[in-house]
Write a structure and sequence with these properties.
alpha/beta; nine-stranded mixed β-sheet; two-stranded antiparallel ribbon; 19% strand; globular
């Protein structure tokens, strides 16, 4: 078996990735594909925490910009992340991997409350932990939630799995001349205003010296990153 570069990581998935080719909702085939890769990593002995966005169901910030109260919109977005978490949990357990959804907002009929020590214990027992409902507070993104949970759970790296291969100087979807960075410092990300994660998340990772690895979710790159292969972009202390 190949040697793992990390023992415990937090993987941040965008909600939009779960929609597949559509712009809204949950595509079962896409979720199944994502879960297959996560299950394979768990089989290799990797301890995995997940944070999943909710943009495929509801985007709080966008709705706030259209006149909805920001706090109400953000709480709706948090509930969307719980829906995604339960969908991913269902697929992972079909692969035979015990999975626990821990929510920052109490929903005892659906999932456990997020308690750091309980989450750590689940990870130690080989269970995949999905941290849902963001931080439980409005005005904070799921990027910030991912960074926060990664610090709390003593993860060695934050892996942001996206639809592109890494961090580019401009949008590679609409710009053929976009250039991908192989390595960036946290300060460079903030200075260049690169959309890796929001500035709060970047600052939290910088203060705690936890690297962020950005890679493609759909090319098997998450596995390659875990095995130490040179793919994607790494954001580190510099």
């Amino acid at each position: 078996m190949s040697e793992l570069r990390y023992k415990r990581v937090l993987i941040k998935l965008s909600g939009e990735a779960l929609a597949g080719d559509g712009k809204f909702g949950i595509d079962p085939e896409t979720v199944a594909g994502v879960c297959t890769e996560i299950a394979e990593l768990a089989d290799m002995g990797l301890q995995i925490a997940l944070v999943i966005g909710g943009g495929n169901i509801f985007r709080g910030l966008s709705s706030s910009a259209k006149g909805m109260d920001r706090s109400s919109a953000d709480y709706m977005g948090m509930m969307a992340t719980v829906m995604n978490a339960v969908a991913v949990q269902d697929h992972l357990e079909k692969h035979g991997h015990p999975t626990r959804v821990l929510s920052a907002i109490t929903m005892q009929e659906i999932c456990e409350p997020y308690i750091r020590r309980r989450a750590e214990r689940h990870l130690e027992k080989g269970r995949i932990v999905i941290c849902a409902a963001g931080t439980g507070n409005p005005f904070f993104t799921t990027d910030t939630a991912a960074a926060l949970r990664g610090m709390e759970l003593k993860c060695e790296a934050i892996i942001k799995a996206t639809k592109v291969d890494g961090v580019y100087d401009k949008d590679p979807v609409t710009n053929d001349d976009a250039v991908m960075f192989k390595s960036l410092s946290f300060i460079e990300v903030l200075q260049k205003n690169l959309r890796v994660m929001d500035s709060t998340a970047i600052s939290l990772c910088m203060e705690n010296n936890v690297p962020i690895l950005v890679c493609n979710l759909f090319k098997g790159d998450v596995r390659k990153v875990i095995l130490g292969e040179d793919v994607g972009t790494i954001v580190h202390g510099g």
